[in-house]
Amino acid sequence: MTRSQIHFVTGRLAAPALQRTLLDLGPRAGFDYSISVLPITVAALMTPQWIQRHLQVPANVTEILLPGYCNGDLQVLTTAAGCPVRCGPRDLRELPEFFGRQPKLDPSYGEYDIQILAEINHAPRLAQSTILKQAEQLSAAGADVIDVGCDPGDRWNGVGDCVKALRDQGHRVSIDSLNPKEIQDAVQAGAELVLSVNSTNRDAAPDWGCEVVAIPDEPTDLRGLYGTVEQLTDANVALRIDHVLEPIGYGLAKSLHRYLQVRNDFPDQEMMMGIGNLTELTDVDSAGINVLLLGICQELKIHSVLTTQVINWARSSVRECDLARRLVRYAIHHQVLPKHLEPGLVMLRDGKQYTLDERELEELAAQVRDHNYRLFADDRQLHLVSSGLYLKDTDPFHLFDQLLAAEPRNLDASHAFYLGYELAKAKTAITLGKQYEQDEPLDWGLLTVNETCHRLPRTGSTQSPPSQPGPGDSTTAKRPSQIPQEDALE
Q1: How many CA atoms are closer than 13 Å to the CA of 157, on its beta-carbon side?
Q2: Beta-carbon neighbour count of residue 375 at 10 Å?
Q3: Same fold across 4-101 and 115-339
Q4: How far apart are CA 363 and CA 359, in angstroms?
Q5: What CATH number was assigned to the domain covering residues 4-101?
Q6: Fewer Cβ close by (within 10 Å): the C or N end of the chain?
Q7: pLDDT of residue 453
Q8: What local confidence, expressed as pLDDT, does residue 236 receive?
Q9: Element containing residue 190 per DSSP (H, E)
Q10: In whole angstroms, what separates CA 351 from the centre of its chain?
């Protein structure tokens, strides 16, 4: 079998680190390689058209790999080179993972068979406009059914209007109530599922003409639950069983055992799990709990969950459940660990935090000729590099004091504000164990919000690269390895 011959394209600053990386990686990953060091300090400003003008491709190359930030239309390069061209990772330290350790997902990843019911709590207390707005948000996050949560006590006379408005907006709707008259109004308006049917209202269930969720009168009452299931079945009422999940301290383990017992006793019956009793009532971010509970549901063939987003730490539960149901289905159907498959659910910390080689940072300080600042962070320290300058400290204030002591020429108010903002991000990354990349948002998984680059246009922009700054200019470039301006063109 012929070995791959991969041609790597880089800029001058990254070339030594790339050489060292490939010297070890090439033999291990089973490819031969060559490198083009193009006449630009850092590769982040390269465009495919610019690369085409400067690149000379050796013979027998089977693939060309560009830096990760060079992501314009690659067809011009593919045509000129006569071989596939693609972008590698944005960080050199990710190359080992890029070659060989990335999971190869089946095209079916993303399929799911768990339905998400998202409850709008205390709906009778809300204006209809508020309910409709919440429903739109929940649906956009991944909810399949909008559950209208009613209050115990008096009948809500507006429930029918609420359900109709939701249906007119295109939503599927369920009603969570024990009041038969309230339920009847909701069903007549278009509700397709009734939550909370037990001995108190099961006699009315055949009149509703829709599917219901059977629950116990008391959480530990399996006998009463089974009586409700038997009566509903005899009346040909379609149903799901929810034995009710108990909070920690109130019988969580036993309630999970009862779900298992119900599944054993009713192997083919549809079931549901209300997971809010754990996500809403436990002092912990909700994502991990949601993944765990949906994993249990997937194993037990529980095909629907009811969730809420009331308390702040569970405010993204629907989105978490939407990703979790895809993750757990893939893991169980393919018999693989649910690991390195769904980065959107790793939010507080990152899956990996790369280490820094301080010798390389010292080399970088010796090589660069501009006075732009390059910021880095590892698991303990902040690092600042500029022309002939390498500073490090655990405290951003102390690092800034060191910078002031160096009497920089380009530290005006705007520049100082930018550095303060970036150092705050870097310190947050160190505190939480996240990877910091200058001018990039921290990776918060599904909660990541992209940031606008305020200093230089990103690669592929139609804007011209900035001109060479004068002695008093204060322009901060982007990324590790920020873009030196004196040779941004050549």
Answers
A1: 0
A2: 24
A3: no
A4: 6
A5: 3.40.50.11600
A6: N
A7: 67
A8: 97
A9: none
A10: 12
Alpha-carbon span 244 to 277, nearest angstrom: 9
Instruction: Supply the DSSP string of 246-266, one letter for each residue.
Output: PPTTTTHHHHHHHHHHHHHHS
Q: Which residues contact 220 (CB under 8 A, 6 or more apart)?
A: 251, 254, 258
Strand pairing class (115-120; 273-274): unpaired
**What tokens does 3 get?**
């070995």
Our separate counts of H helices and E strands in the chain read: 15, 15
Q: If we measure between CA atoms, which residue out of 136, 101, 140, 104 comes closest to residue 120?
A: 136
Tell me how far CA of residue 362 lies from CA of 1, 24, 119, in angstroms. 42, 22, 56
Neighbours of 188 (CB within 10 A): 14
Q: Which two tokens stand for residue 285?
A: 């971010």
Exposure of 144 in the CB half-sphere (CA atoms within 13 A): 15
Once rounded to an integer, what is the mean pLDDT over residues 140-149? Answer: 98
Q: Tell me how far apart the alpha carbons of residues 171 and 139 are, in angstroms, rounded to a whole number.
A: 8
Quick: pLDDT tens for 388-413. Answer: 899 999 999 999 999 999 999 889 99
Fill in the DSSP letter of residue 100.
I
* CATH code for residues 115-339: 3.20.20.20
